[in-house]
Please model this.
Amino acid sequence: MIRYWSYLDYYDQQREELLRRLDEVLASGRLILGPEVERFEKSLAAHCGARWGIGVNSGTDALFLALKSLGLGAGDEVITVANTAVPTVAAIRATGATPVFVDVEEETYLMDVGRIGERLSARTRCLLPVHLFGQAVDMATLTGFAAQRKLAVVEDCAQACGATCHGKRVGSFGDVGTFSFYPTKILGAFGDAGMAVTSREDLAAKLRRLRFYGMDREYYAEEEGYNSRLDEIQAALLNLRLAELDEAVARRRRIARLYDEALAGVGDVGLPATRPGRDHQYYVYTIRTSLRDHLARHLEERGIETKVNYPVPVHLMRGYAFLGRRVGDLPVTERLAGTILSLPLYPEMPLDQAAVVAEAVRAFFGAE
Ligand SMILES: *Cc1c(COP(=O)(O)O)cnc(C)c1O
Model:
């Protein structure tokens, strides 16, 4: 059995250190929003080149609170993509704002920034690029466009912690960058966790209030807020994992290189492209083929797990039918949903297992 993703090999390797840090937190007497959270907020903000980090409960909350901190709500439009995880859209809707979808590029699966202009209206307030699968959106073009039209920018960095665009890390381009530390993510916790980063002092203060019932001081709400805190246990384990991030990404890249080399020119397989001036963290390794469902079955029969990220674009899901979008609105996004397949990839995955996966794909297409 070759698993698509697992943290158990990591747990095997780091069990002692993880348990030591867990014990330290439990013995400290401080469980929520304490020194480990502060350390993690400072470290992650520094890591991505932003001034402040605000730890919250999840990536979805980080997005929701980021949009709230910018004052977005009913009547406002936020331009994003439908080729994303549902939470991107759920967070926009939670503020009352309306998501407006722009199509993506076929070979990178990322927002086609050249088409943002087509979706602008008098109500557009914010651009919300998603750094999907581990690669940054073309942020030079996007932020230039936003500045010209005085639009806010919130980056969904949930899948691309550490990815760069012309040497600058994701999370440092927009007004706010948001991260998820859901266990499968590039920087994964052992439960739910998230963070918003910003270099704007006003937004940092506002985000800190919003995550804690709107309070700056005990038992007094300065404004209407929420409850979205980060706990010390998750932060302590994330501090360890952040220190190991570069090494983990290097291992992801080694597996991706193996797939790149083994699958180039095989059948009608399209490989994930990396654009010049950007790097790829390979949160997932996603290929394209017209025989996707057959290939997935072929691999499953050989004990190889795969996934489709994502089988249905958000604008065509029943839960978002009220937005009134139709088949044909986003041709590239819709075509990709039928052809993409993500292969097994996680940092501790043995290279010989990746070789078995690549060989099984080659065999399916009859490659020698
Ligand atoms: C995982 C993810 C989120 C949501 O993060 P949670 O921590 O699960 O709430 C948001 N956007 C994208 C692109 C994601 O992959």
